[in-house]
Structure formats: structure tokens, C-alpha cells
Design goal:
This protein has 425 residues and is of the alpha/beta class. Helices cover 34% and strands 15% of the residues.
């Protein structure tokens, strides 16, 4: 997409969609000035532009330099067209934001539905064709959840592949930066650009998107979670999930219905403990100073971390290592693990219960266990709402995740469909 076309679409549709916090007109051109258009979640620094973090008071009013992931996009010739909305401090899966407002899921122009969080604006922008790709962060599903809710691809790498320098944290033990796009190839290309070692926690070699996308996955052995191991599912999610498994089998993959020794939702609570415990320690001063200006549900989540002692947090980290070792050993027998991304399609915003987090019930495991994962659209419900298929891979095996996502995409019947935006013009 030409940058001028992206800006024109943003001007036409985003007044209601509210995907962007800030539009760069003219855009930030990368080297070559004609690259793919990309949007940046407003938790990631762009030099000289406030990093709002979904808050009324910016996290940084004027960052001195770009986050490393932004630098790499620009050096690769990609064009940054703006910064996108996020749940405040990235702490929520619904995509709500009572501090500065939430984006509108583009699949329903009449009823405002959850866009998914916390990378809500990035998913909406991609789904609505307001950019080619977007960056998001993922601590418990925050790339994959909005991807599923908005009918796009969301790719979350494992730890150590992508630099977090210039990305404001929620939980340093769990945080990752991922990519969102309309197709697997673009999401993988974006990951290739932003990946590679830095001088801190990113230690792995850059991701090779071309090799991953060219991989023949016929004969790969996949574990698919049976319905009785997935907890309560919306009937349409269950139907589309089973259809997706049949399509993979027809494409030559070995899909076995098998439950792991540790159910995915068993990671929900310990992942939440780490988020609350680490997040409160990071943002305590801000909460105490600006709490009355913050989304009250976000404050409530962080306050839960106040009760988590240093000893309990240390024990949680040790238990995580034990859980990772056991799960990785089990997953070594398979090339991937399949489940729905979210157990329900996007609900109306006015029906959301902020005391619950069902959208992250099946996604948090990837962060807790440090597994790469991707959400790929697998169809529409009878109401016309998108559903995502989640593919998790072995430790450090982003290549198989991308290869499997691309293989499913080819047989999914999705064919790059997009929402009708006539009601948003």
C-alpha cells in the first residue's frame, strides 16, 4: 500500500474506528521511502512523539530515540504511518480503555464490539486496511487476541528474538513484541525485519521468513486439543475449529486429538500472578501519582500485585521453570499445538465483564511457557464475526509456526476477506 493511500484511508475511516492515536502526515519514511506501511502500538517509542501507553498522562512525552524495532523497520525501508491505540499500560484483553477511548471492531458498524487487547488499535488498523502491518506487544495474548477478534494474522515470537529496548514493559518475564498483518507472509516479513540480537535481552539470530514460508509441512505431526480439554467454547468457535482441523488433515498434515499433561488454561493464573506482581513493581509510582486519571479497572489489576510478596513472586518464577521443562518435553513429540485462539467471538462492548478475562484463557500459556504462536483467521460465525485458529510451536521454533500458519492459510478459504467499511465512512 502506498503511504498516501494509507493516509487517505485513515482520514476516511478512522474517525469512527479510532484505531490511531496519532497519524504521521507526512509519514516517517524508511530508507528508500517506498516501503510497506506499518503502524506502531502506542507502547513503543517513536522519537519525538509522545508514547501515550493508552493513558491520559504520557509514559514518555518526547522519547529521545526510536525503539530498536522501529529503527529496524525504517532501516529496512518500511514507512511508519502512525501510532495505534492500546489498553492502558497494555493490561487487558478486551480492548477497552476508559482513560482515552477504545477502537471499534470493524466487523460490525452497528454494534461496538470488543476489538481485543491490548494491541487493539493495531489489529483494527490492519483489519480495516489502514496499513499493511502493525506492531503490537504480547504478554498474555495481546497480539493474538485482537488478531482473532478482528480477523487478521497475529504472530508472537518466543523470548530473545526481538528487542524490547524502547518498549514500555508490563511484565519483563513475559513481554514480547509481535506483528499483525492481513496475511502470514507479511506478518513473517515484519518479524524478520525487527528480529535479531541487541545489546540486552535479544540474543537470537534474525528470523528467516523466506525459508519458513517455503517449508513443506506435509507430514508434520500436530497435537490438536479436543473440545473437552478446551473448557467452555462458543458453539460457532467449536464448529470453525473442527473445520480447520479437517482442512489441515486434507492438506496432508497428521492432526491428532490429544490433551497435554498441563491444560492451556492452567497457565492462566500463574501468568496472571507474574503480570500483576511484576507490573505493580514497575508502575507503582505512576499508579500512586496518577491513579485517579487512569482506567479504574487497570488500577484494580495492578493493585492485585501489591499483595504479592517478593518471596511469592520468586516462587512463581521457579515454578514456571518447572512447568516449562515439563511442557517442552511433551511438545517435543509434535511439530505444533492447535487450539482456538479465543473461546468466544467479539462480544458487544456494553456486555463486557471486566472482572473476567475469557479471551486470554487459551493464549496466556504461550507466554508462560515461552512458546512462539500465531493466530490465523479460520472463518466467520453466523453473525459474521471472525474466529482465530491458534498454532503454538516448540521452544524457539518460529519457523514451524509460520510455515504451519501459511499452510493453513492456503486451505482456509479465508482468501484475505475484509470487513465492510461502508458504515464507517
Amino acid at each position: 500500500m502506498k503511504p498516501a493511500d494509507a493516509i487517505a484511508r485513515i482520514r476516511r475511516f478512522d474517525r469512527r474506528l479510532n484505531a490511531y492515536v496519532r497519524v504521521f502526515d507526512p509519514p516517517l519514511f524508511g530508507d528508500g521511502n517506498d516501503g510497506v506501511t506499518v503502524a506502531i502500538k502506542d507502547l513503543i517509542d517513536v522519537a519525538g512523539t509522545p508514547t501515550g501507553g493508552g493513558a491520559r498522562v504520557p509514559l514518555d512525552p518526547a522519547p529521545a530515540r526510536h525503539a530498536i524495532v522501529v529503527e529496524r523497520l525504517l532501516h529496512a525501508g518500511w514507512t511508519v504511518v502512525g501510532k495505534t491505540q492500546t489498553v492502558e499500560l497494555a493490561y487487558g484483553g478486551w480492548g477497552t480503555n476508559r482513560a482515552v477511548g477504545a477502537p471499534w471492531n470493524p466487523w460490525d458498524a452497528k454494534v461496538q464490539r470488543a476489538p481485543g487487547g491490548s494491541s487493539s488499535g493495531s489489529a483494527v488498523a490492519v483489519a480495516a486496511g489502514l496499513c499493511d502491518a502493525a506492531l503490537g506487544s504480547d504478554t498474555g495474548g495481546s497480539v493474538r487476541i485482537p488478531a482473532a477478534m478482528c480477523g487478521v494474522v497475529g504472530l508472537k515470537p518466543g523470548r530473545g528474538l526481538v528487542s524490547l529496548t524502547g518498549v514500555h514493559p508490563l511484565s519483563p518475564a513475559l513481554d514480547t513484541v509481535g506483528t499483525l498483518a492481513r496475511n502470514v507472509a507479511t506478518a513473517a516479513a515484519a518479524l524478520a525485519v525487527i528480529s535479531g540480537p541487541d545489546s540486552t535481552a535479544a540474543t537470537r539470530d534474525p528470523f528467516d521468513a523466506e525459508t519458513a514460508l517455503a517449508t513443506d509441512v506435509r507430514g508434520f505431526r500436530l497435537a490438536a486439543l479436543p473440545l473437552d480439554a478446551l473448557g467452555e467454547l462458543h458453539p460457532e468457535v467449536a464448529r470453525l475449529y473442527l473445520e480447520a482441523l479437517d482442512r489441515l488433515r486434507a492438506a496432508g498434515l497428521r492432526v491428532e486429538m490429544v490433551a497435554p499433561p498441563q491444560a492451556l488454561d492452567q497457565s492462566f493464573a500463574p501468568n496472571g500472578l507474574l503480570m500483576a506482581g511484576e507490573g505493580f513493581r514497575i508502575w507503582r509510582d505512576r499508579i500512586e501519582r496518577y491513579g485517579d486519571q487512569m482506567d479504574p479497572w487497570i488500577v484494580r489489576r495492578f493493585e492485585a500485585g501489591r499483595e504479592i510478596s517478593d518471596e511469592r513472586l520468586a516462587q512463581a518464577h521457579l515454578q514456571r521453570e518447572v512447568d516449562q521443562t515439563a511442557f517442552h518435553a511433551w511438545l517435543n513429540d509434535y511439530d505444533g499445538l492447535l487450539s482456538p485462539t479465543c473461546p468466544i467471538p467479539a462480544p458487544p462492548m456494553d456486555s463486557i465483564d471486566e472482572t473476567t478475562s475469557p479471551l486470554s484463557r487459551l493464549t496466556r500459556a504461550a507466554n508462560y511457557l515461552d512458546l512462539p504462536g500465531i493466530s490465523v483467521p479460520c472463518g466467520l460465525t453466523v453473525e459474521g464475526l471472525p474466529v482465530g485458529l491458534q498454532i503454538l510451536g516448540q521452544l524457539g521454533d518460529e519457523a514451524s509456526v509460520v510455515a504451519l500458519g501459511a499452510a493453513y492459510e492456503r486451505v482456509s478459504g479465508w482468501d484475505g476477506r475484509s470487513p465492510d467499511l461502508s458504515g464507517f465512512a
